[in-house]
Amino acid sequence: MSAITPAENPELWSFLDRLQPGEVLAGTVAAIEPFGVFVALDEGPGHPLFPGVGFIGIPELSWLRFEEASDVVEVGQRVACEFLQFDTWNGEARLSLRAMQPDPFQAFADRVAAGQVLDGKVTKLVPFGVFVQVADGIEGLLHLREFAGEPVGSPEDVVQVGDPIRVVVTETDRVRRRVSLSRREVPAGPR
C-alpha cells in the first residue's frame, strides 16, 4: 500500500492537520483488527481505505492487560479518545483510549511503598521468577533470587500459577511501570 497524499485527499489531510495532541475526539468503533481498532470519528471526513479515520493501536486501548482488542471494545461502541498524532503515511488520527482513564499503576504507586507486605496470587511462571498480581490490574516480578535465603533452581520448585503468596514490595518504578517483589524480606509471623 502506498502512502495517502494531501493531493489525493485534501479534505482528509486538512482535517487531520488541524488536530492538536491532547484533543479529545469522539466516534464509533468501526472495526477491530489484531493490530488495533479503527474509529469512525464524529467530525471530519471518511477515510478512502480504512473503516475509520481514527486508529487506536493495541497498547493504547487499556492500562490493564487483555487478550484481544474485543475484550476492551466492540464494533458499534461509542468512544472518546485522546488524539496522539497525525499518521501522515496512513492518513489517520492515532488515538489513545487508555489516556481517558486514570492509570491504575500510578494510583497503586501512590498508596504502596517499598517495604510494604502484600498478599497476592501467582499469575505467570518465567525462567527467572514469577509474576504476582498484587492489586487489580497490577502485577509485580518476584525474581528467583528473591524467593528464599537458599537458591531456587526453578519457579516450579516453589509455586504454581494460582497459588496465593505473601510478598514485600522492594521497588516501584513509576516510569517503567514495574513493581519488584521479594519473599526473603517478608517478616516471619502469622498471616
Any chance you could write out the topology, listing elements then pairs?
Elements (H helix, E strand, L loop, with lengths): L9 H9 L5 E10 L2 E6 L12 E4 L20 E10 L4 E5 L7 H8 L5 E10 L2 E7 L2 E6 L20 E10 L4 E5 L9
Parallel strand pairs: 3-5, 8-10
Antiparallel strand pairs: 1-2, 1-4, 2-3, 4-5, 6-7, 6-9, 7-8, 9-10
What would your notes on this structure say?
The protein folds into 2 domains: 10-100, Nucleic acid-binding proteins (OB fold (Dihydrolipoamide Acetyltransferase, E2P)); 104-182, Nucleic acid-binding proteins (OB fold (Dihydrolipoamide Acetyltransferase, E2P)), CATH 2.40.50.140. The protein contains 2 helices and 10 strands; from the N terminus they run αβββββαβββββ. The protein has helices at 10-18, 104-111; strands at residues 24-33, 36-41, 54-57, 78-87, 92-96, 117-126, 129-135, 138-143, 164-173, 178-182. It is elongated, with a radius of gyration of 22 Å.
Q: Estimate percent helicity.
A: under 10%
- What is the residue-averaged pLDDT? 92
- Label the overall shape: elongated
Oligomerization state = single chain
Helix/strand/pairing category: mainly beta
The radius of gyration computed from the alpha-carbon positions, rounded to a whole number of angstroms, is: 22 Å
Identify the strand order in the major beta sheet.
1-2-3-5-4
Question: Strand count, sense and closure of the main sheet?
Answer: 5 strands, mixed, barrel
Task: Please give the count of helices.
Answer: 2
Strand residues, percent:
35-45%
Q: What is the CATH topology descriptor of the largest domain?
A: OB fold (Dihydrolipoamide Acetyltransferase, E2P)
As residue ranges, the low-confidence spans are: none
Q: Give me the CATH superfamily of the largest domain.
A: Nucleic acid-binding proteins
CATH architectural category of the largest domain: Beta Barrel
Instruction: Give the terminus-to-terminus CA distance.
Output: 60 Å
